[in-house]
Write a structure and sequence with these properties.
Length: 410
């Protein structure tokens, strides 16, 4: 399952925090409401108790309405409202003293005190607002909400350059060195972007210097090779002339191979994929070995019984096969490589002792360990070419027959 992005995680955290903030203010509102209700009850109790105290002392207030007004209570004059409160209101509590009964009633978010006595029945409305009307509480909630949302927007904006930086890194990984991810912001992400920008420019400069160095060397080597080829043509001894020509041709081919390898490793090579018959690619790979014509058949044994069409870069795939055959000839007991095809796989076999290290070590550019004869860059180049073609390279060693087998699975 794909992991959530950083922005999604931050959004979830802020949503959860906002929910907690809302729950906190709801509880605070509820507490405030209950506190107001309790305060209203206390006022009603005080008014009743104080009234009873006056009655016990044989003192009756001249104006009962003015008396209850001091306790934030006023008489309900509207008969319709009075009837609705008595019929539809919710009784909070009821208290009876002697022949008098006092009932606290809730109706439409307001609280009433109904007094029933022999002398009179009166409904009093509480002037105190039970529902929270404290503006400071709502202002505090609004300020907290604005702060949370502002922090969320600020953080999202701060990490938004990460998406652009990620795209730049992908472009850099694909081989585009002409990227600019410098940032003029003053935060940690901008610092990372600027450090990466400096690293890209330094790597670009190093790669340009390396390419210039290699190409200069290869260009300078071409000149003496060309001159040596011309001089060798002037020799009268045909055998010596042919050998020198072969040597200079091999050097010229090696320099061309190095140029392709440099492009391949630096990922600046654009392959030209076409359909080719396996036998033609193998013929070209055998020619690249530059073996003597009279000994070529002795060193390379080809057994292709099926017609296999490959979607490949002709020169690169031939170079990979040439390296496999060259390593097999050099490191086999009888200096012979057997090449055959089997159900879409191209197999290279040779006889020899088991390799001292695991095959993974020989697929690296340079081999570690105390080995008298290494495989050089050959298998490393083969591995890169095979991966470029979306093929796979497999290796097996058969202990009983002492046979090495490399298999290119197309």
């Amino acid at each position: 399952m794909r992991e959530q992005s950083l922005s999604s995680k931050i959004t979830i955290i802020f949503v959860f925090s906002l929910i907690l903030l809302g729950m906190f203010f709801v509880l605070l509102l509820k507490y405030q409401e209950e506190k107001n209700i309790e305060h209203m009850k206390q006022r009603q109790f005080q008014s009743i108790n104080y009234l009873f105290t006056l009655y016990r002392n044989n003192y009756t207030p001249r104006n009962i309405e003015e008396y209850f007004h001091t306790f934030d209570l006023k008489k309900v004059e509207n008969p319709s409202l009075k009837q609705a409160v008595l019929d539809q209101g919710t009784i909070i509590y009821r208290k009876s003293i002697n022949l008098n009964r006092f009932t606290s009633i809730e109706y439409n978010d307001k609280y009433y005190l109904f007094i029933e006595s022999i002398m009179t029945n009166v409904l009093l409305e509480s002037n105190s607002t039970v529902k929270n009307s404290d503006k400071q509480l709502w202002i505090g909630f609004a300020i907290a909400l604005i702060i949370f949302i502002s922090m969320y927007i600020s953080i999202i904006r701060s990490i938004s350059p990460l998406k652009e930086l990620s795209l730049k890194i992908r472009e850099f990984a694909s081989g585009n060195m002409n990227i600019d991810c410098k940032s003029d912001q003053d935060d940690e992400i901008a610092e990372v972007a600027n450090e990466f920008d400096r690293a890209v420019k330094k790597i670009s400069a190093l790669m340009a210097s390396r390419q210039l160095f290699l190409r200069t060397i290869m260009h300078e080597l071409k000149t003496p090779i060309g001159k040596g080829r011309i001089v060798s043509e002037m020799l009268e001894d045909d055998k010596a002339k042919n050998r020198l020509i072969t040597i200079f041709e091999r050097l010229d081919i090696l320099i061309s191979e190095f140029a392709k390898i440099e492009q391949l490793v630096s990922q600046s090579y654009t392959p030209n994929f076409k359909n080719y018959n396996l036998i033609y690619v193998l013929d070209h790979a055998t020619d690249l070995l530059m073996l003597e014509n009279d000994t070529q058949a002795e060193h390379v044994k080809v057994d292709i019984v099926e017609e296999l069409i490959l979607r490949a870069d002709f020169e690169l795939l031939a170079l990979a096969m040439k390296n496999l055959m060259d390593n097999a000839i050099k490191h086999s007991v009888d200096h012979v490589v057997h090449v055959r095809s089997d159900h879409g796989a191209i197999i290279f076999e040779n006889s020899g002792e088991k390799l001292p290290l695991g095959i993974e070590e020989y697929l690296k550019p340079f081999i570690s360990g105390n080995i008298k004869q290494g495989l050089g860059l050959g298998l490393y180049i083969v591995k890169n070419i095979v991966e470029l073609h979306d093929f796979s390279l497999e290796y097996y060693y058969f202990e009983e027959k002492k046979i090495h087998q490399f298999k290119i699975i197309t």
